Amino acid sequence: MSCSSFKFKCLQYFFILHIFASTSILLSSTHNSSINNFLEIANSSEVFDWMMSIRRKIHENPELCYEEFETSKLIRSELDKMDVPYKHPVAITGVIGFIGTGLSPFVALRADMDALPMQEMVEWEHKSKVDGKMHACGHDAHVTMLLAAAKILKHHEKEIQGTVVLVFQPAEEGGGGAKKILDAGALENVTAIFGLHIAPDIPIGEVASRPGPIMAGSGRFEAKISGKGGHAAIPQHSIDPILAASNVVISLQHLVSREADPLDSQVVTVTKFQGGSAFNVIPDYVIIGGTYRAFSKQSFNQLRKRIEQVIIGQAAVHRCNATIDFLDEVRPNYPPTVNNGDLHEHFVNVAVNMLGINKVNSAVTPSMAAEDFSFYQKVMPGYWFWLGVQNASHKRLQSLHSPYLEINEDGLPYGAALHASLAASYLLKYQQDVPGVERRYLDEL
Ligand SMILES: [Zn+2]
Ligand SMILES: [Zn+2]
Fold it and tell me: Known InterPro entries for this protein (predicted)?
């Protein structure tokens, strides 16, 4: 290589690098300004007041697993007003909306819609109007934030470099609605999915997540332990299932404390113990039930195998018979929720830009709770994070699934803006990283 051609090459590289650098700066500044703008829109009184009215309407009318008909209707009527096209019904009550070019790449945002079968104990103007049903997991807020993200994204539709797929999903609380959405083929060409969950113990404007496992895999069991009923005062003529079941419960506790690796988190909890109805009668049988949790497939399967062996074995020690049902037909086991590493990086960038570095906990401790968002992550890269909705003034400890849960609605604009920014900037980045991506039409979704 001659000296002059070397100089020319250097100059060429300089220009390429320079152009590349300015393009990156341009993209990142566009990116930053739109992110800031998204939070501003979400916080504007017009959007904020609208969000409050939606959330409160859903909160007053909670619907359980696969019965979210009115919630689904409300979502569709809001999407109609925004002129956002959607598919319905998907997985009974589910709604899948589309914003953007209608072409690939497709990125999905998910909100679950169902409430819990429990009585709200919070006395406030918008308390649940349905006895025995309550939005105690904040899915009313999730729906609201995704609708607000739709509003923001629709406003910026011309800038969207692909299609944002809005997933309003039924039946997260035990019904595996996510799996039903996937089984319906509704997300076949989606390249990534984001989900969030309100966290009543995290301050407003803050988020928390981590790469890798963040929630455990979860299964259920129910066992019938049968003996022989009789007079409580003549136990020698009976086979007592109460005592047998009591020993089963104690023995099940040894699975985690004595058999599991202490560094491999696992849980076995018996939550149900039903038997007998009189003070002086030994019943014929007892029903027990509960949940088991683990992060790895191997530990999960091992727990399941040992739960069965312990129940049958301990029942036999007390001359009882036992049958076990892992309820696979009623509810699928939830896999562990495992966050994709590249999407974690993307999330941290977006969240730090929007909220500031001190407001983003990127190494939160994993939880033994479970989420059906994990079904999406089994078939595509997915990312799930906690969003702060803490009521700082409250003395009572706030937790999900509590009849006293009272979320701070000031957190909702952050969730809406993050949803919108995560999706819009993901598509921008995707176009940069995968140039010349083949464009596919919406019909293929
Ligand atoms: Zn829940
Ligand atoms: Zn939930």
Answer: Amidohydrolase (IPR017439), Bact_exopeptidase_dim_dom (IPR036264), ILR1-like_Hyd (IPR044757), Peptidase_M20 (IPR002933), Peptidase_M20_dimer (IPR011650)
